[in-house]
Every structure is written in structure tokens, then in C-alpha cells.
Write a structure and sequence with these properties.
By secondary structure, this protein is α/β, with parallel strands linked by helices. The protein contains 17 helices and 15 strands. The chain binds D-serine (DSN).
Length: 414
């Protein structure tokens, strides 16, 4: 990569301190491999839109009904992003592209559907859920009356009988399906049936598999869930941000819960970048990319299993592989640090029933979205699996630096 070209010279000229930090990050990404399941490498076109002058524009409100003048371009940008989103997730009845993040999207949707103090049910963080699904350290666990379901401790999979039992006891207004480290397909129709049984609405949080769903390579909740929330920067490979798809009958509440309920002016530059990313995702190559993301994760899982590592659920249906380290004398935090030395960016992660605290954990979450963007196929993923096994088993991480460096050079960032 030509680093001098990757940032505008005014920054280097005016603020060499920040410019040099950003160049360091460019180098860090170029010279290491990202296996963090929630990260990806968006295109130069997405980054250009995100850094454009429209960042200066205030556009509180929605297209056609703004509180500021001069929003004609912002209106066109937001309309385009919404239209592309609804083409990409065919069957979606409305798209709100303003949420700044996945957590903001969830908070806005939950406030719209359950109301402050309302009852919600979501999956426990430790079981693979997300903080914003009712965890007690999240506002979603403070503002709402939240109850949570786990997973079957033997299979690591969602136990729909438990979901039903928790819902029957708690009588939520909103049932949440989805998570941040759940590596299996979710039966959204079954979740919707449980929600109907207890008079709840179903919110599907597809932040992780959104790209796989847009490409049709894993089952999607569109047309099943009342509301679908997501981030745009994980498998979807767009800019950092969130989005909400809603059925017509809840669309008004959702929109007013995002603005003015939870946010002020939208980040129009991010909305422009979302439009670019959705345009990319509508191209046929995006499906090929997502098929490879899924195939790479399946291969990574097979190779780790073959070398004796335990995986939560014994494999994967999506881009995530969750290694259970409890039978090896090592923590998630230790492997994360060894991986950093070797040139791999990974994250420690709780496994279901984990006795260790969140900053230590007994698991390692891996994802294939970013390395697949770099062009990785089966052979390269196999080589990485071998490195991970070596790191887990305690080999000197420095030993793997040249293998990882070779892969980084052969598969540069887009
Ligand atoms: N931080 C995201 C993840 O890693 O899954 C979720 O918020």
C-alpha cells in the first residue's frame, strides 16, 4: 500500500501527530490478519464517502421533513441508501439508515416497541447474545425489565423450549433473537411463533450475519421478524453504523424513536457510505464473497476440530468459530496476546457457562469476513488454523510471525 496516498496531505501537513497515528493503523491492518468476527475491510469507495464534505451537514429529521435548510443533497443520499437497503433485503417494508451503531439501533427499537420499563427477553451475553439485549450493565438491562435465555449446555445451541419457558414466565413485549458470538443458524419462524404465543413482537438482531443474509447464504428473518436491527460494518462490509428494517405497522414508532427519540442529527457522511456499501452488496460478486466467507469458516472449524480443539456447538453455520479452551490450560486473554505477537488480531470471548471473568474468558472467537475480503481461500485458512492450534498449545508466537507476514504480503488489503 502506498501510505502517502491513503490520507490526504492536508492532514499530514496540519497535524502530523494524528496523521502518523492513522498511518500506524494502516500499517497495523496491512501487516496483520484480522480474525475478529465483527470486523471487515470496507472498500476505498466506502471510505471516501465516509470522509466526504457532507460530514458538515446537519439534517435532523427525515428526507422531505428536515429541521434545517440546505438538505436537498442529504435527502437524496438518504433516500438512495434506504432504497438500496430495501432492494438488498428484499421484503423489508421500511429502512431507517440513521442509527449511529447497532446498540443505538437496538435501544431505539426496544424503546419504540416495549416503552420505558417494558418487559423484554433476549439471549445472555455469555451464551452468545449481546450487551444490548438486556444485559444488566447495558441501559437495555436498566431501562427495561429484562429476562434472558441461555443455550443448551451440552450442545451450545439455542433451546427453544427454554426460550418459550422464559417468555411464558416473563410475558415480554419484545423477544430478541440474534447475538454476537452465536455460530449457528437461528430458526426465526420458531422464534416468531413463540413471540405470537405470548403476545410479543420479534426483534431479530442480525448485526453479525447481515452480509451473509443479504447474499442469501444463510436463513434470514426478513418477512418474519417485526423489526430487524443490524450494523453495517461486519459481514455487510460497509462503514461503521447501524440500520433498522421494520414492518409497516411499526415503522412510525421506530422512526420517531431513532429521531428525535434517541439521536439528533444523522451522520450523513456515514449514510452516504452505507449507500455505497449497499450498492456493492447488490453486485453478483458479493454473493460469491459471502459463499467464500461461509466456506472458509467451515474449513477453519474442521481443521481446528481435526487437531483436537473443542468448538462451541462443534462447528459453524456462518462466519464465526468459537473455540472452547476449557480443556486446555490456557485462557482466552492469553491466546489473544499470543496471537497479537504472531500477527493475528483475535478476541477473547466467553463460552456458554464460562466461569472466568469477561476480561479473561475461556474462549476465542474467530471470524472469516476480513481475511476473505483479502482473498483467502481454503489453503490460507488452513494455514491460519495451524497457527491458532500452535498458539493454543503454547508454541512461541514469534515462530509464526513469518507465515503470517507472508500471507499479509500475498493478500494485501483492498
Ligand atoms: N462489538 C461487536 C462484536 O464484536 O460482536 C458487538 O457489539
Amino acid at each position: 500500500m502506498n501510505h502517502a496516498e491513503s490520507h490526504p496531505s492536508p492532514l499530514q501537513h496540519q497535524d502530523p501527530e494524528v496523521a502518523s497515528l492513522l498511518l500506524r493503523e494502516d500499517r497495523r491492518q496491512a501487516e496483520s490478519l484480522t480474525l475478529i468476527a465483527s470486523e471487515n475491510h470496507c472498500s476505498a469507495a466506502v471510505r471516501t464517502a465516509s470522509a466526504s464534505r457532507i460530514t458538515d451537514k446537519y439534517a435532523e429529521g427525515y428526507p422531505g421533513t428536515r429541521y434545517y435548510g440546505g438538505c436537498e443533497v442529504a435527502d437524496a443520499v438518504e433516500d438512495l441508501a434506504r432504497q438500496r437497503a430495501m432492494r438488498l433485503f428484499a421484503g423489508a417494508e421500511d429502512a431507517n439508515v440513521q442509527p449511529h451503531s447497532g446498540t443505538t439501533a437496538n435501544l431505539s427499537a426496544l424503546l419504540a416497541l416495549a416503552g420505558p420499563g417494558g418487559r423484554i427477553v433476549g439471549m445472555m451475553l455469555k451464551a452468545g447474545g449481546h450487551l444490548s439485549h438486556g444485559h444488566d450493565r447495558s441501559h437495555t438491562g436498566m431501562v427495561f425489565q429484562a429476562r434472558q435465555y441461555g443455550v443448551d449446555q451440552t450442545t451450545g445451541r439455542i433451546d427453544l423450549d427454554e426460550v418459550r419457558k422464559v417468555c411464558k414466565e416473563h410475558q415480554p413485549k419484545v423477544l430478541i433473537a440474534g447475538g454476537s458470538s452465536y455460530c449457528r443458524d437461528i430458526d426465526y419462524a420458531a422464534f416468531a411463533a413463540i413471540a405470537r404465543e405470548v403476545g410479543a413482537l420479534l426483534l431479530a438482531d442480525i448485526a453479525h450475519p447481515a452480509g451473509l443474509m443479504a447474499a442469501g447464504v444463510v436463513p434470514s428473518p426478513i418477512g418474519i421478524a417485526d423489526v430487524v436491527t443490524m450494523t453495517t460494518h461486519k459481514t455487510l462490509r460497509g462503514p461503521r453504523g447501524g440500520m433498522i428494517l421494520a414492518k409497516k405497522d411499526v415503522q412510525k414508532q421506530i422512526n420517531s424513536s431513532v429521531f428525535p427519540g434517541s439521536q439528533g442529527g444523522p451522520l450523513v457522511q456515514q449514510i452516504a457510505a452505507k449507500a455505497v456499501a449497499f450498492g456493492e452488496a447488490l453486485q453478483p460478486q458479493f454473493k460469491t464473497y459471502q459463499q467464500q466467507v461461509k466456506a472458509n469458516a467451515a474449513h477453519l472449524a474442521e481443521r481446528l476440530l481435526a487437531q483436537g480443539l473443542d468448538l462451541v456447538t462443534g462447528g459453524t453455520d456462518n462466519h464465526i468459530v468459537l473455540v472452547d479452551l476449557r480443556k486446555v490450560d490456557v485462557t482466552g486473554a492469553q491466546v489473544e496476546e499470543r496471537a497479537r505477537i504472531a500477527g493475528l488480531s483475535v478476541n477473547k470471548n466467553a463460552v456458554p457457562g464460562d466461569a472466568r471473568p469477561p476480561m479473561v474468558t475461556s474462549g476465542l472467537r474467530l471470524g472469516t469476513a476480513a481475511v476473505t475480503t483479502r482473498g483467502f481461500g481454503k489453503n490460507e485458512v488452513g494455514a491460519i488454523a495451524d497457527v491458532i492450534v500452535g498458539l493454543v498449545r503454547g508454541s512461541d508466537p514469534e515462530r509464526f510471525r513469518s507465515v503470517v507476514q507472508g500471507l499479509c504480503e500475498a493478500f494485501p488489503l483492498p
